[in-house]
Amino acid sequence: MGHWYTANNICGMRASVTILSVLLLILAAATAVFLLRPDTAAAPTASAVAPTGVVHEVTLGEDGFSPRELTVALGDEVVFRTTRNEPFWPASNVHPTHTLYPAFDPQEPVAPEDSWSFVFDKPGEWRYHDHILPYYTGTITVIE
Fold first, then answer.
1. What's the CA gap between 100 and 14, in Å, rounded?
2. Per-residue pLDDT of the chain (144 residues; tens, 9 = 90+)
3. Given Cys at both, which of 26, 44, 92, 120 links 100, Cβ 3.0 to 4.6 Å?
4. Beta carbons of 26 and 46 less than 8 angstroms apart
5. Which regions of 14-83 does DSSP assign to beta strands (E)?
C-alpha cells in the first residue's frame, strides 16, 4: 500500500508541475504581449495635430474619385464632393466596416449638393472607397 500512495503522490506532483508550467507560460506570453504592443499614447490624435490650413479637393464622378491618388501633409484637410447627382459616402477601407481609419468616415451618406471634409491626423497610406458603390476607390497618402 505504501507504494501505491507514493505513486499517486508522484503522479499528482507531475500534474501540479505541468499545470504550473502552463500557467507560467501563459503569464509570460501575456507579459510579452503587453510589453511589445505599440505605444498608443504616442500616436497622434485629432487634438494633437494642428490643422495646416491647406485644403485639397477630391471629386467623385462617373469615372471614380479624382484625383484617385493624393498625397497630403499631416493636418491637411481633404474636401470630398460629387458630380454624380447621387448621395455618396467616402470612407476608409475595409468595406463595409471602415476599420483601417475609423474616424475617416462621415457615418452617413453625403447629399450630392453637400461636401464632407476630413483633416488627416495620422500619417500613412489610407485606402478608401465609396461605401454606397465600393468599386469607386482611392488612396490618400499622409506624410509628416
1. 47
2. 555 555 555 555 566 666 766 555 555 555 444 444 443 333 444 446 778 889 999 999 999 999 999 999 999 999 999 999 999 999 999 999 999 999 999 999 999 999 999 999 999 999 999 999 999 999 999 999
3. 92
4. no
5. 55-61, 64-66, 69-73, 77-82
Identity of the residue numbered 14: R
Kindly report the three-state secondary structure assignment for every residue of 100-133: CCCCCCCCCCECCCCCEEEECCCCEEEEEEECCC
CB 109 within 8 A of CB 65: no
Is residue 112 exposed (0-12), middle (13-18) or buried (19+ Cβ within 10 Å)?
middle
Beta bridge mates, 91 = 129
- Summary count for the chain: helices (H), strands (E): 1, 8
Residue 44 class from Cβ within 10 Å (0-12 exposed, 13-18 middle, 19+ buried)?
middle
The DSSP code for 66 is: E
CA distance 97 to 89: 13
